């Protein structure tokens, strides 16, 4: 097997987690490891694109709410809505109360049930409301919130792909990336993203440094709680669970950043 280069990991990350025209040249455990370690970089790119669209609307005279809607729409478009779909499917699977095998079958169905619809609507409303508040405070705070939330959402995927977390199915994206990231690598990624987010927030003052770091940590804690619950209920993780983790982390980050 040829040696994995950093570019293989980047291609895997952007080719599987975004719609950017990147060709995945390798689909194996080594490439998946690099790809999941690079997942926060895809979030950084998506968040920057989302913030750019929101800022353009603000500068054209749109208000904070409209800019917030656009900012939420961009990540959905750049991921083909896969994370939102995963959130809805995960909610349906958990809400069904059925055994793991039946719950996984419900999650694979193309339709969305009542639990999925309710969860999806509430998550999107929370994201838009939090971003609107951030934009109303200042365009810079809104842009920062968009970038931080998108990045921490993908960081949650890095942590979920750590060694020791099993796959619920033998096929699919969940099986391809489950357990590929060494625990040490996942922790280092978490420290790096938290430190970078806090450093960026330093332009707003010491309070924002603490609040941003707390937002990252609480986002990861919320995603970890969901991960553990899904692992107990389904026997492991799936691609849908990864999507649910990303949206949970993003929503938590935005809510925490809107407080205080």
TrEMBL record:
Catalysis performed (reactions): alpha-ribazole + adenosylcob(III)inamide-GDP = adenosylcob(III)alamin + GMP + H(+); alpha-ribazole 5'-phosphate + adenosylcob(III)inamide-GDP = adenosylcob(III)alamin 5'-phosphate + GMP + H(+)
EC id: 2.7.8.26
Membrane topology: Multi-pass membrane protein
Record key words, sorted: Cell membrane, Cobalamin biosynthesis, Magnesium, Membrane, Transferase, Transmembrane, Transmembrane helix
Transmembrane segments: 44-74, 112-132, 138-161, 173-203
Principal EC category: transferase
Main location: membrane
Pfam family membership, one: CobS
Cofactors named for this entry: Mg(2+)
Keyword Cell membrane recorded: yes
Family annotation (InterPro entries): CobS
Listed pathway(s): Cofactor biosynthesis; adenosylcobalamin biosynthesis; adenosylcobalamin from cob(II)yrinate a,c-diamide: step 7/7
UniProt-annotated location(s): Cell membrane
Task performed by this protein: Joins adenosylcobinamide-GDP and alpha-ribazole to generate adenosylcobalamin (Ado-cobalamin). Also synthesizes adenosylcobalamin 5'-phosphate from adenosylcobinamide-GDP and alpha-ribazole 5'-phosphate.
Family statement drawn from the similarity comment of this UniProt entry: Belongs to the CobS family.
Name the UniProt record assigns to this protein: Adenosylcobinamide-GDP ribazoletransferase
């Amino acid at each position: 097997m040829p040696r994995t280069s950093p570019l293989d990991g980047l291609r895997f990350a952007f080719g599987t987690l975004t719609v950017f025209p990147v060709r995945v040249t390798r689909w194996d455990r080594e490439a998946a490891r690099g790809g999941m370690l690079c997942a926060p970089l895809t979030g950084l790119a998506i968040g920057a694109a989302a913030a750019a669209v929101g800022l353009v609307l603000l500068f054209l005279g749109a208000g904070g709410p409209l800019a917030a809607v656009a900012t939420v729409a961009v990540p959905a478009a750049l991921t083909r809505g896969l994370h939102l779909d995963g959130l809805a499917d995960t909610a349906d699977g958990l809400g069904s109360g059925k055994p793991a095998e039946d719950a996984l079958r419900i999650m694979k169905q193309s339709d969305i049930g009542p639990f999925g619809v309710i969860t999806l609507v509430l998550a999107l409303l929370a994201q838009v409301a939090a971003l609107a508040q951030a934009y109303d405070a200042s365009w810079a705070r809104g842009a920062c919130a968009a970038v931080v939330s998108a990045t921490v959402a993908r960081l949650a995927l890095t942590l979920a792909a750590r060694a020791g977390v099993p796959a619920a199915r033998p096929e699919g994206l969940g099986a391809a990336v489950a357990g590929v990231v060494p625990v040490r690598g996942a922790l280092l990624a978490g420290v790096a993203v938290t430190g970078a987010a806090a450093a960026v927030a330093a332009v707003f003052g010491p309070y924002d440094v603490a609040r941003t770091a707390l937002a990252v940590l609480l986002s990861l804690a919320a995603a970890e709680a969901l991960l553990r619950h899904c692992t107990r209920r389904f026997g492991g993780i799936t691609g849908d669970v990864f999507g649910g983790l990303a949206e949970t982390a993003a929503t938590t980050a935005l809510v925490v950043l809107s407080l205080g």
